[in-house]
Write a structure and sequence with these properties.
Helix 1 packs antiparallel against helix 3. The chain starts with a helix and ends with a helix. Helix content is 28%, strand content 30%. The protein has three helices and eight strands; from the N terminus they run αββββββββαα.
C-alpha cells in the first residue's frame, strides 16, 4: 500500500518557477545586450534605463534579468549604440553590453513603433497570469487524481 502511495505521489505534476538565463543582459530599443566583464571608462550621453526587472519571467520594455529598475544605459564613446552600450554597475563604474539581436518580447524598435500608424492592439487573452493559472490548475488536477487513485486502491483492498 505504501509503495502504491509513493508511486501515486510521483504522478503529481510539479512546476518549476525558475528561469535559467544563458547570460546577464539588458534590453534596450528592442534588442538584447549581453553584459560583459569589460569595463568602460569613456561614456557619452545617457540613452535609457532598466524599466523592469525579473529573474523569473521575460518582461517587455527595457528589461533586465540581473540589474534593478533604474539602472542607467549610456553611449560608449567611439562605438555605435546599435553595436554596444555601457551599463552603470556602480557609482561611476560601467560595463560593456554587446548587442545580441532582437529581443523576442520586442517585435519592433521604439523608432519603428513611432513610425507605425496608430492602431488599437487586440489582446490575445494570453499572458503570464493566465499561464500561471494553467500551471496551478494542473497541479490541483494532480492532487485530485492522487486522492481518487488512493480511494480506488482502498476500495480494491476491501
Amino acid at each position: 500500500m505504501l509503495y502504491s502511495l509513493f508511486i501515486a505521489l510521483l504522478t503529481i505534476p510539479t512546476t518549476a518557477f525558475a528561469t535559467s538565463w544563458a547570460y546577464i543582459f539588458v534590453v534596450w530599443d528592442g534588442h538584447t545586450y549581453e553584459v560583459t566583464n569589460n569595463k568602460v571608462s569613456a561614456v557619452g550621453e545617457q540613452i535609457g534605463m532598466v524599466t523592469s526587472y525579473s529573474d523569473m519571467w521575460p518582461q517587455s520594455g527595457n528589461f533586465s534579468n540581473h540589474y534593478p529598475k533604474g539602472t542607467k544605459y549610456f553611449e560608449i564613446e567611439g562605438i555605435e549604440p546599435s553595436d554596444a552600450i555601457a551599463v552603470e554597475v556602480g557609482d561611476g563604474h560601467y560595463k560593456k553590453a554587446e548587442n545580441r539581436g532582437r529581443y523576442e518580447k520586442s517585435p519592433v524598435t521604439d523608432q519603428e513603433r513611432n513610425d507605425l500608424p496608430l492602431v488599437e492592439a487586440q489582446d490575445s487573452g494570453r499572458n503570464e497570469e493566465s499561464s500561471t493559472f494553467a500551471q496551478i490548475k494542473w497541479s490541483y488536477f494532480g492532487v485530485v487524481f492522487l486522492i481518487l487513485f488512493v480511494f480506488v486502491l482502498f476500495k480494491m483492498k476491501k
